[in-house]
Amino acid sequence: MEKKYKLGILVSGRGSNLQAIIDAIQKGEVNAEIAVIISNKKKALALEKGDRYGIPALFLDPKLYGSKKDYDLALVEKLQSYAPDLICLAGYMRILRTEFIQAFAGRIINIHPSLLPSFPGLHAQKQALDHGVKIAGCTVHLVEEEVDAGPIILQAAVPVLNEDNEDSLSARILQQEHIIYPQAIQMFIEGRVGNSMKAKTVETQ
Ligand code: GRF
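# 5-O-phosphono-beta-D-ribofuranosylamine complex -> structure
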């Protein structure tokens, strides 16, 4: 039988991107299985999907570790025990340290709710509104040490409407996130994403 790609998913919250990945796997659009879901937040709704879909889902408590480095080293160890091929950040709200990024070099991807390199960091949708852009969107990219940077895999654009507020714009962007995140994962699985941390270009579809 063909070996299934194993995904390790890091979450902190609601888990709608995780759900989109689960749905795409079930539909056969992503040729992978989720090996583990790990959250840094005990109450993350995303963890409930573990029970629902029979996926190991763990809360790794930051309070149990003396430093951010220790936490990330524990996270690496925990993830490695599930032997993931690719780490997907799906609303994971902690900055990953060097040790983590090096442990999975070139095998970590993230989704961000802006057209990077515009509006990295928190509240990207509000940043876009405050700036008055007319086109917003989302980006899936390989993770490097700089936050919300790294080679871009896929992007999707949405219009910003005059009557938009942060919630309405976020909802329109989120619909696109749910489309491009599974697509980007499948591209990675098919070897269509450069593994070089130096590569600034990635083959497009
Ligand atoms: C998404 O907007 C994602 O782009 C950002 O965090 C949010 C996570 O949402 N990184 P969800 O937990 O996947 O619903």
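# post-check
The chain has two domains: 1-105, 110-205.
Residues 110-205 form a domain with the Rossmann fold fold (CATH 3.40.50.170).
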